[in-house]
Write a structure and sequence with these properties.
mainly alpha, 2 domains, single chain
Length: 93
């Protein structure tokens, strides 16, 4: 009878408690990292972006408009954020 309880306790320790601790640590790391990123991305304002892009010459703007980077870059950026978020889900990633 003691061997059965020993097996149940070792299974409980291995699967439930260990995974709970690991996933809690991962959740804490990801939540702190995302708040860190949000606090540092709030520095970007439309004025700073406008000032950074004002150095482009008309020739560069022609190719930026031709390649439709105004539509493509937000799509790529949001896809990278989505990929980063999905990989942090424990069951999927």
């Amino acid at each position: 009878m003691g061997m059965i309880f020993n097996q149940i306790f070792s299974w409980l320790l291995r699967t439930v408690i260990f995974k709970f601790v690991i996933f809690s640590i991962l959740f804490f790391i990801v939540s702190e990292f995302s708040s860190f990123l949000i606090s540092h991305l709030s520095v970007l304002t439309p004025d700073s972006l406008n000032q950074a892009l004002s150095g482009f010459t008309p020739e560069i703007w022609f190719f930026v408009d031709l390649l439709r980077l105004d539509v493509g870059l937000p799509m790529i950026f949001s896809a990278y954020i989505l990929r980063f978020s999905i990989r942090r889900i424990p069951i999927i990633g």
